[in-house]
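for the recovery benchmark. tokens below, seq after
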């Protein structure tokens, strides 16, 4: 990190939050990279709104603009097979948004994707390599255990 960076630049930077989100997820295999990137893209916005350094309007505006990039092409492949940039980052983020909404709906707004991620951390954060997820099911099931800059940016590549 540059010594010239200031506090305002750190508050407006999405990269640090995105990369820290990756640290919270065990290795899930290259074919599920869309989930790792989708979680990082989706959670970055949510976390920065919760921290007060990004407006919810800015996050929704970016998602409305960018999530369509994650839609499959006609007769396109699923997220496990299509490793294009749009499908990986924004298709993954769209999956996470839908999972978050579904979890909220099924739990009467008691739980969300953040609770699911907290459960992942509780179960395996200290030993990432020991836990490898081999499949992702949709719709998500509940186990009973309890979820750039300040301007919109369309470049996601980490
Ligand atoms: Zn990433």
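predicted aa per position
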């Amino acid at each position: 990190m540059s010594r010239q960076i200031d506090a305002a630049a750190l508050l407006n930077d999405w990269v640090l939050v995105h990369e820290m989100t990756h640290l919270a997820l065990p290795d899930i295999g290259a074919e599920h990279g869309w989930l790792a990137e989708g979680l990082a893209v989706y959670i970055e916005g949510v976390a920065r709104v919760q921290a007060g350094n990004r407006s919810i309007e800015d996050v929704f505006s970016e998602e409305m603009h960018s999530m369509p990039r994650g839609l499959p092409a006609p007769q396109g492949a699923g997220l496990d097979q299509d490793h294009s940039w749009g499908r990986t980052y924004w298709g993954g983020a769209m999956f996470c948004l839908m999972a978050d909404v579904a979890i909220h709906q099924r739990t009467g707004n008691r739980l969300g994707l953040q609770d699911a991620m907290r459960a992942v951390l509780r179960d395996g954060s200290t030993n990432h390599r020991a836990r490898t997820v081999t499949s992702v099911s949709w719709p998500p099931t509940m186990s009973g255990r309890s979820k750039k800059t300040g301007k919109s940016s369309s470049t996601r590549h980490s």
